[in-house]
Structure formats: C-alpha cells, structure tokens
Amino acid sequence: MRKLAVIIPAAGSGTRLGSPLPKPFIEIAGKTILEHTISKFLVVREVCEVIVATSKDSIERVNHIFKNCSVDGVDFKVVEGGAERQYSIDNALKKVGEEIDIVAVHDAVRPFISAEIIKEAISRLDSFDGAVVGVPAKDTIKLVDDTHKIKQTPDRTKLWQAQTPQIFRKEILLQAYEHAIKHYYFGTDDSSLVERVGGSIVMVEGGRENLKITFPIDLKVAEMILSGKI
Ligand code: C5P
Q1: What pLDDT is attached to residue 49?
Q2: Pairing, β 31-32 against β 27-28
Q3: Fewer beta carbons within 10 Å, N or C terminal of the chain?
Q4: Which residues have C-beta atoms less than 6 Å from ligand 1?
Q5: Would the pTM count as exceeding 0.85?
Q6: Which residue is closest in CA terms to ligand 1's atom 7?
Q7: Which domain does 160 fall in, by range?
Q8: Residues near 69 by Cβ (< 8 Å), separated by ≥ 6?
Q9: In ligand 1, which atom is closest to the CA atom of 8?
C-alpha cells in the first residue's frame, strides 16, 4: 500500500475574511476549521503523516488540535509557514518522512472534501505523476489585460477550476518545488509547479461543496452545511 503524507498549509492571515483570528482556527459546529479538514484525511488508510504549516503564533494552537486528532499509525508534525503559500508548503516538504511515496497538499480552509474523492485521486497515481481535484468551470472565464480590457475568451468546455487536494508522487513534487524556488517562479497552486517540470497530471472531478473558505459568505455557507441547514 502507498504511504501518503498530507501537507496542510494553514499560515494565511485571513484578511479577505476580515477575521482577527486566522481562518483555520475559526470554530464551526464546535470544532476549528482545521480540525474538520484533518479529520477527512484520517479515515484514508494510506495516510501516515499530517504536516501543518502555520504562523509562529499559531504553532501551539495546532499542537492542541493534534491532541484531539491522534490516530494510531499517523505522525503529526507542525512547521512554521512562510510569507507565501508556496513557501509554507516548501517548509513542510522538508519534513516529509523517507518512507513516504506520495504527497497530498490540501488547503486548511477546505473542510468539505470527502474521503471518496481523496481515494479516487490517490488511485489515479497508478497512471499519472499527479492528480488534481477540481470542477468544470461554471462561469465563462475572460482573460484581461492590466486595464481589464478583455483579450480572450477561452473555450469554457475545456476549463476546470482547480481545487485541492492535489496529490503527487513525492519525487516529482520535491523536484518541482526545488525548480520553482531556484527560478523564483510562483504558482497559485502546486500542479502549476509540477507542470513546469514536465509532470503528467490528471483532473479528478470533485464536488461544488469543496469550497475554500475565503470570504465572509463562504463562512456563512460552511456554517449552514455543518449545521445541516443545506
Ligand atoms: O492564500 P489562500 O487564501 O489561497 O490560502 C490557501 C491556503 O494556504 C490557506 O489554507 C492558507 O492558510 C494557506 N497559506 C499558507 N501560507 C501563506 C498563505 C496562505 O499556508 N503564506
């Protein structure tokens, strides 16, 4: 059986949410968002390590959350995050154990991922270097210039919105991060880094409920989902 490490970047400031507490530590239905998120991975047999990257101020918070999550056979580690999401993940990658063969990256603020979709993405690594969970684009997407003048309208039937988890063979993810850091390349997701080193990656259809809690409206929707109102 494959051995999987899950890296959870949780070092964002939460400015778009307008909350004084960083997003992963906001409580919904009696548990922090981070704890809801971690719990989704703990039922997946391949998971051997959970590595959370967070700000220096939140390291104690994460250690406290780990006490509620402990499961036999799973190592929990916390590392200090960086100024950009990519640096937070790079710091976490340095802590991945020798025995691990695949690595998943999953945003702390996506607590509604399902174990079935995680398992489906893992299974695709038999044929690909990586698997990215996402959904077909619902809206028409425009490419604009700096003045917001529309330059192009890509064919929507070929556009997908990338979510997380994004799961990769360990060696290619390490190579992709080394390459990106060396060449000062910043991507908005992990797949874009692996694409640049020639990795073959497949999209896996996830669900619309796998929302990233970013804006105040997302938090309201998350509260409704967890309280069973929708
Ligand atoms: O930046 P964004 O809102 O897209 O955040 C996605 C995830 O990355 C969040 O879980 C956030 O906590 C994390 N993040 C991080 N380090 C940063 C910025 C964001 O770990 N410097």
Answers
A1: 98
A2: antiparallel
A3: N
A4: 9-12, 24, 53, 81-85, 88, 107-109, 214
A5: yes
A6: 107
A7: 4-226
A8: 35, 38, 39, 42, 50, 76
A9: 10
